[in-house]
Amino acid sequence: MRLAAGLLIGCVLAMPARAEVVSIADAVGTSLIVEIAWNDPVDLDIFLTDPPGETVYFANRLAKGGAVMGRESGCAEAAQGDGPYSETIRIPTALSGRYRVSVDFIKDCGNTTLKADLRVVVKSADGTVLGRGKSDVQYRNLNPVAWEFDVK
Ligand SMILES: [Ca+2]
């Protein structure tokens, strides 16, 4: 029993943090920017799945729904100096429904970091913060549901 309980607790602790879904009201049809930011000098990659289910990321840079890759940061940026580092995806005309942010910790860039904490922010075109949250991702893992928000 003790072993089973220990394993259960270990599994729970190892799971990525998962926040509640954030609602962003009166945003359908508006322009949004989704940003992840982190302080560790490592390479994280942002993924954004739109309400129809298409995922925008470095290898699919423009969704039929309009979302498009923005800024990217990798080991070159990590080597240039202190963070925070960030990646963005722009949504020129937000669709109604749920957007899911996934984050991949693809390269440690020569560092020993095994878990990277990150912040997620959704902003309007004028920079107003409409929603924010935080998550984390383990080295060489994809956190498939780092953060979600509903555009209404
Ligand atoms: Ca990256």
Gist of the model:
The chain has 152 residues and is mostly beta strands.
General description of the model:
With 152 residues, the chain is mainly beta. The chain has one domain (18-151): Immunoglobulin-like. 12% of the residues lie in helices and 45% in strands. The chain has two helices and ten strands. The chain has helices spanning 2-14, 75-80; strands at residues 22-24, 32-38, 43-49, 55-56, 68-69, 85-91, 97-107, 115-124, 129-138, 142-151. Strands 1-10-7-3-4 form a five-stranded mixed sheet, with no helix packed on it. A five-stranded antiparallel sheet has the order 5-6-2-8-9, with no helix packed on it. β3 (43-49) and β4 form a beta hairpin. The protein is globular. The N and C termini lie far apart (47 Å). The model has no long low-confidence stretch (mean pLDDT 91). Calcium ion (CA) is lined by residues 43-45, 72-74, 87.
What distinguishing features does this structure have?
152 residues, 2 helices, 5-stranded antiparallel beta sheet, mainly beta, 10 strands
Number of domains: 1
- For the secondary structure, the number of strands is 10
Classified by CATH, the class is Mainly Beta
| Major sheet summary line | 5 strands, mixed
Using only CA atoms, what is the Rg? 16 Å
Strands across the major sheet, in which order?
1-10-7-3-4
Give the proportion of residues in helices.
10-25%
- Count of helix runs: 2
How do the SSEs run, as a string of H and E? Answer: HEEEEEHEEEEE
Q: Shape from CA axes?
A: globular
Write out the distinct hetero groups bound to the structure: calcium ion
The CATH topology is what? Answer: Immunoglobulin-like
| Content of β-strand | over 45%
Rounded average pLDDT: 91
CATH architecture: Sandwich
Low-confidence stretches: none
Oligomerization state: single chain
Distance between the first and last residues' Cα: 47 Å
Quickly give the structural class: mainly beta
